[in-house]
Structures are given as structure tokens and as C-alpha cells.
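Table S2 (text version). Query chain:
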Amino acid sequence: MKYLLSSPDPARIGLAQSLLDAAGIEWEVRNEAVSQTEIGMPFATELWVLRDDDYQAARDLLKFGAALA
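Corresponding C-alpha cell output:
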């Protein structure tokens, strides 16, 4: 399992999840509940890739997604 990204913006996490889902890459979200309940605190939702072998493909997808935005 490898860390992919973190953001306090739920839309950014949602976009990343959609891109990963479309590519068949399994992921896990961490700190989602904490980041939503602790307004003003330095917590951000984290997105992790479950299989290490998928990490580079996931990074490439996010770069592509950012280029489209």
C-alpha cells in the first residue's frame, strides 16, 4: 500500500477516486471523517493505492486528470 495524495478538498479526492476506479486501481481513503469534523484543523483526507504495482499508473492518471482540469 502506498500513499498517493492528500487534500482538504473533497472534490479533488472524488475526482482522483473516479479516475482510479475507471482504471481498475483499488484505493483506500484515510482521515476522511477527521478532516470533515475538525474544521480549521490541519487534517486532510488521504488517498492510498492498495497494490504497490499500481502506484505509478495511479500517479500518471492523476497527472493526466490535472492536465484536463
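Notes on Table S2: The beta strands are 2-7, 27-30, 45-49. The mean pLDDT is 86.
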